[in-house]
Design brief:
One of its GO terms (molecular function) is amino acid binding. By secondary structure, the protein is an alpha/beta fold. The protein has helices spanning about 10-30, 55-65, 85-95, 110-115, 135-145, 165-175, 205-210, 235-240, 245-250, 270-275, 280-300; strands spanning about 45-50, 70-75, 100-105, 120-125, 155-160, 180-185, 200, 215, 255. The protein is about 40% helix and about 15% strand. It is globular, with a radius of gyration of 19 Å. It binds phosphoric acid mono(formamide)ester.
């Protein structure tokens, strides 16, 4: 594998190898000196055409912990605003002797398109509503860390499934590892053919919470809905929002996850997001080790 374009393109064995490599990098990250020389001769460009906090910083930190040289590109403030194309932008960056591209783009398939045009390794850091493979890897890795294994666990993905790249990558990754997956949300935010992916469907959030071992709660992606949000945020919060009392009242302990950014008071109340049920900040912490593993493995294959 030369690129990480999506979970769909990798195997359960690849996931296992990424997790075992990330385990070793987690040990490194817990040492006083957190840096290793593994990518000392590698130059990586983080090319972000969409906003990001966690993914961008976590890739940059992972690259620096691996001793790579790093350059960062954001579309805002760049010559994209003067009309330069994606391919011209990336080819100009590559001509500066860059080896790997980590890219986030609003168009589904943008990294796949690039992979057919350029020689450098590409890591998809989120392509529109399509895939966000490193997020799914760090989510599964966090479940494995908390519950021992992913196989056999019941994971409910709750929220705006239609506009979420995190949902699709998680469904592929979790099923590949032998988990049972359900989705839950209002019908307007569930894709029409989602059942074809072999997932269970819940329209009632309390039933989904009662069924699952892990609730991975997603944000309502207002930026992808062109002002046509139905239900409204208030209605969504009323019928699908999760609070701590709902989690405390279950007759079992479940794990609460969220990829961020959280719309506090919409999909999660603060008392739920900040409760003992939540592993949200562990997910962020694990993102660095997972991204170190992905970059290291891709660079090792040349
Ligand atoms: N989870 C995630 O992709 O967050 P950012 O958009 O902040 O990178």
């Amino acid at each position: 594998v030369r690129h990480l374009l999506g979970i769909k393109e990798i195997t359960p064995q690849d996931i296992q190898l990424i997790f075992e490599t990330a385990d070793q990098f987690k040990e490194v990250l817990n040492r006083p000196i957190k840096k290793v020389p593994s990518l000392r001769d590698v130059t990586i460009a983080n090319v972000f055409f969409e906003n990001s906090t966690r993914t961008k910083l976590s890739f940059e930190l992972a690259e620096k912990r691996l001793s790579a040289d790093v350059i960062n590109f954001s579309a805002s403030g760049s010559s994209v605003k003067k009309g330069e194309t994606l391919l011209d932008t990336v080819n100009n960056i590559l001509s500066m002797k860059v080896d790997m591209i980590v890219m986030r783009h609003s168009s589904p398939g943008a990294p796949h398109f690039l992979s057919r045009k350029i020689q450098a390794n590409i890591v998809n850091a989120g392509d529109g509503t399509h895939e966000h493979p490193t997020q799914a890897l760090l989510d599964s890795f966090s479940i494995r860390q908390k519950l021992g294994e992913v196989a056999g666990k019941k994971i409910a993905i709750i929220g705006d499934i239609t506009h979420s790249r995190v949902a699709l990558s998680n469904i592929f990754a979790l099923q590949m590892q032998g988990a049972e997956v359900a989705v839950c949300g209002p019908p307007t935010l569930l894709p029409k053919h989602i059942g074809d992916l072999g997932v269970k469907i819940f329209w009632n959030v309390r039933e989904a919470l009662q069924w699952c071992d892990v609730a991975n709660v997603l944000r309502i992606q207002l930026e992808r809905q062109q002002g046509k949000l139905f239900p409204s945020l208030r209605e969504y919060a009323l019928y699908f929002g999760i609070n701590k009392k709902m989690l405390d009242e279950l007759d079992k302990e479940i794990v609460l996850m969220h990829p961020g950014p959280i719309n506090r008071g919409v999909e999660l109340t603060s008392d739920a997001a900040d409760s003992h049920h939540s592993i949200i900040l562990d997910q962020v912490e694990n993102g660095v080790a997972i991204r170190m593993a992905v970059l290291y493995l891709l660079a090792s294959k040349g």
